[in-house]
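Progress note, sequence design subtask.
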């Protein structure tokens, strides 16, 4: 990120660092005999955090990297299309 001049590199790196600090804190709690519930809570928090991080932070980074290396935006592939997201058929008229 830093070598490409990504504008949000520090913010992105800070977010990853915060997650790693949380993981290390949970490891320490568990090493000291803490309840496994703290690990489950972290897993739930990560499950809630990650989609937004991927959709915004990682997508912005991917777009930046592709634009810098190829001059365009990346192709986005989605595994599943929700009915509410499906394109509407053209009007017949």
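Output:
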């Amino acid at each position: 990120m830093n070598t490409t001049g990504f504008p949000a590199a520090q913010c992105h790196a800070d977010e990853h660092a915060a997650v790693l600090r949380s993981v290390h804190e949970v490891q320490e709690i568990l090493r000291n005999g803490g309840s496994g519930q703290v690990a489950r809570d972290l897993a739930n928090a990560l499950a809630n955090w990650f989609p937004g991080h991927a959709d915004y932070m990682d997508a912005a980074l991917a777009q930046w990297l592709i634009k810098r290396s190829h001059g365009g935006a990346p192709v986005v592939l989605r595994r599943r299309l929700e009915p509410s997201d499906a394109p509407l058929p053209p009007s017949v008229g």
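Residues 9-66 form one domain. Work on this subtask will continue into the next period as scheduled.
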